[in-house]
Structure formats: structure tokens, C-alpha cells
Design a protein that fits this description.
elongated; Jelly Rolls; alpha+beta; five-stranded antiparallel β-sheet; about 45% helix; single chain; Arc Repressor Mutant, subunit A; about 300 residues; five-stranded mixed β-sheet
Amino acid sequence: MSNTYTLNSISQLHQSLGLPKPRHPLITVVYPDDVQPVIPLQDVKLIINLYQITLKQFACGTLIYGRNSYDYEEGTIIFTSPGQVVAYKEGPEEDNQNIEGWSLCFHPDLIRKSDLGDKINQYNFFNYEVNEALHLSDEEQKTIEEIVDKITKEYCQNLDRHSQHLIVSNLELLLDYCLRYYDRQFYTRTNLNTDVVSKFERLLKAYYQTNKTEKCSIPNVNYFGEKLNLSPYYLSDLLKKETGKSAQEHIHYHLIEKAKNKLLNSSDSVSSIGYDLGFEYPQHFSNLFKAKTGISPRAYRNLD
């Protein structure tokens, strides 16, 4: 897998897939049976500087994305943000008549001056790993495809002063529905999620019991994501749904509880306790402690 291709625009995407000139310079919907790739899509790496929302309803070999390989299941949506690396391994050849699905791609400039541009980073699923994909019911898939059809019809007709707003509004509606469906997916996987929460809590406690702070500083969400084979964004969202606190909030809570015990049960200085907990600078420890408790570490120690 030595070849790497970078696609920076909708026009370049169309050229690479052997598609006609795009109807809109900043957004397109691609269907598999229209694709006649100019570059090989198998055994290469693609860096696509576009947002992508892709529905797959067919087996298409193995997709390598992030740290994981994933075989698509029917009715699955994945989301990728600009700059992420995607690679396809060669899979079994498919009868083109059985290939269904679509990929909606849009350039960041499409939403740059809109409300959606300000909130796009709130849709954490653009940073999920591919094995954390969204699995749709038939009814959910129908809703999503109706919105995609509206977007397609809007950019395929003659553009006017309303076009940009209507395209972006429908795109935001699509993302909001996907956010709702992810909430449903978190809910229906409660038993599995509870197991993840338990593993996370055990890892968090073990981090300090094994004195990892001496070598690794304070733990971060990436560390726990790697241990649990989850993206930090997915892990944080899962914990938020299950416990009401994000991964970072869990880490901070554990740090503060450890700090309280040390402050009340040892004569170590505040600076020394901060270092023991993994803080590089004592002031950072004091600032976090005060932000979470409303009182400085020194004042907490002196409480009656």
C-alpha cells in the first residue's frame, strides 16, 4: 500500500472517480454505480480534505480507517472529516447491480460562514473510529435518504439566492437526525456500554495504583481510548450518555478525590501532591482544584 492520493476539492473527487463535472463546486452525492475510478481505490491511501457521510448497503471488502479494519454491514453510516486517511483493501468482486448506497461529500467552505460552520465540531461522530459507525433501522434510513434527496435536488437545479441556505439547512437537519440516531444507538447498547464504563473506571483507578503518573503525567482521554479500542470522542460521548459525565470530567473527578485524600491524610506540600498526581506545574494543580471545588488546596486542608 505505497500510493497516497490527496483530494482537496469536489472537482478533484469527481475527476478521480470518473464522474462528470460536479453540479455544485462545494457539495456532491456520489452513487457507486456511477463510479468509474481513474485512480485505483484498492490498496491505496486516500487523504480527502472533505467532510464525508457515507451509507453502505453492501459488502465491499475491508476499509482501513484510524486504528481499525472494518467490514461494512448493511445500513451502516460512517462519517469522516477533512484530512483523515482512508484506505481500502481489495475485497471480493461485487456484481455492480447489487451495489447500493451513497456518499455525500462537502467542502468546509460550504458551511464556513453559516451557523453550521460554528457548530460542526459539536458533531463528534466525524471523529469516531469506523467500528463506531451508525447502524440505521429501515425507518431511520428512509428519513436520512429523504433529506439527501432534497439536498441533491437543490444543488442540481439552477442556483439562486436561496440555494446556499437551503442546502446548508438540510445538511444540518441530516446531521441532527444522525445525532438523534446515535443517541438511540447508545441507549440500545446499554449492556455493552455498561461494560465499557466498568472497564474505564478500573483503568482509571489502576493508573494511579501502578504509579503511572511518574512516567505518563496525568492521564488523558486518548490513553483510555487506546486501552479500550475506542476513539476518544466516542468514549467520551458514551460515558456522557451512561453517567452524565464526559471522560475528561471522570478523570478530573478522580484527580480531585485523590487530591482531597492526600491533602487531609498527609503532611506533603501542595506542590508535592500536585507532582505526585502527575501535574508538571503545581499552579495547574491548584487552578484545577479550585475550579472544581471552589476553594484552593491549601484552604481545603485548613478547613475544620
